[in-house]
Design goal:
mainly beta
């Protein structure tokens, strides 16, 4: 089992950058694929980015491709999401999620992930 805690959210102007982090506690973090999802008010939670257990494979939603970068540090049990060129439509609560499995096949559906953090608010002002 793994517990996830997000941090680093805040308010930034459009075009700016923000980095959100997820700290994991528990055993065998390196055997978990990790992902970021987000949920805007009145909308369903949507996939943003994912990274395989080794960090060797990453995937992104089309809406953030080229602007966001997901990374992980298995020695520190952390996964980060660097967000550049932020847009007002990126405003949402960002959630970290974990899925057990040493595979390079990335999952993009919410149902695939077993563990979730409490979320961190990201607000992009125009």
């Amino acid at each position: 089992q793994v517990q996830l805690v997000e941090s680093g959210g805040g308010t930034v102007q459009a075009g700016g950058s923000l980095r959100v982090s997820c700290a994991a506690s528990g055993r065998s973090f390196s055997y978990y694929a990790m992902a970021w999802f987000r949920q805007a008010p009145g909308k369903v939670r949507e996939f943003v980015a994912a990274i395989s257990w080794s960090g060797g494979t990453t995937g992104y939603a089309d809406s953030v491709k080229g602007r966001f970068t997901i990374s992980r540090d298995n020695a520190k049990n952390t996964v980060d999401l660097q967000m550049n060129s932020l847009k007002p439509e990126d405003t949402a609560v960002y959630y970290c999620a974990a899925k057990y499995g040493a595979t390079n096949i990335l999952a993009t559906s919410r149902a695939s992930y077993n563990y979730w953090g409490q979320g961190t608010q990201v607000t992009v002002s125009s």
